[in-house]
Amino acid sequence: FGSVSLKDCLEEYTKTERMEKIGYRCQNKKCKAVDKMEKDITIFRFPKILVIHLKRFSRREKITKKVDIPSKLDMRAFAPNSSKS
Fold first, then answer.
1. Disulfide check for 16: which of 40, 48, 55, 61 has CB 3.0–4.6 Å away?
2. pLDDT tens per residue across all 85 residues of the chain
3. How far is CA 5 from its chain centroid?
4. Residue-wise burial string across 3-13, b where 16 or more C-beta atoms lie within 10 A, e elsewhere
5. Angle CA(3)–CA(7)–CA(5) in degrees, nearest 5?
């Protein structure tokens, strides 16, 4: 079944996602156009304790891949604007 690293999971979760065809329309009465947006997720400030919940299901099927969790994880790549690291 293989394995995946926790860092790979976080990279996949935080990658930029195109939000086309989500049904959002500009609220301006003249515009009413469908916006082509992108969404990304970053950590603004590091918490004292970080809890990570891994989704283990995809389309009602259980994901059986092992997740390799290191004893230390460099999270700076996921918080580019944070002053603490």
1. 40
2. 689 899 998 888 888 887 766 666 666 667 766 667 788 888 888 888 888 888 777 778 888 888 999 998 888 888 877 665 4
3. 15
4. eeeebebbeee
5. 10
User: Which CA distances in Å does 50 have to 44, 68, 73?
Assistant: 13, 17, 11
pTM: 0.66
For residues 14 and 40, is the Cβ–Cβ distance under 8 A? yes
Is residue 25 within 8 A of residue 12, CB to CB? The reply is no
How big is the chain, counted in residues? 85
Cβ atoms 56, 62 nearer than 8 A: yes
